[in-house]
């Protein structure tokens, strides 16, 4: 288990800002939360459209772990976080 964890103080303004925050280690996740981060960055449609329990099942974690991911990136809940993932899909597919 990792000794250090760092969360964002405010939510990222975009999917790219989230990726940059993770890459630059502005946010450091516990291992299971990191698994969620990797999966939803690979498949943003999960976070954009699926339920918390569906996201959790796809990532092999609990719904609480998905909620921890969302709070670690500065959002209050999954519904609030969906915006940057949906915007990313709109950007990709117009």
Description:
- The model has no long low-confidence stretch (mean pLDDT 93).
- The chain is globular.
- By secondary structure, it is mainly α.
- It has six helices and no strands.
- The termini are far apart.
Number of strands: 0
Low-confidence stretches: none
Let me know the largest β-sheet.
none
Could you give the distance between the termini? 41 Å
The coarse silhouette is globular
How much beta, percentage-wise?
under 5%
Q: Helix/strand/pairing class, anyone?
A: mainly alpha
Which percent range fits the helix content? 55-70%
- The arrangement of helices and strands along the chain is HHHHHH
**Oligomer classification:** single chain
Number of helices: 6
Radius of gyration: 12 Å
Give the averaged pLDDT, no decimals: 93
Topology:
Layout: H1 15-23, H2 31-42, H3 44-49, H4 52-59, H5 63-72, H6 78-93
Helix pairs in contact: 2-4, 2-5, 4-5
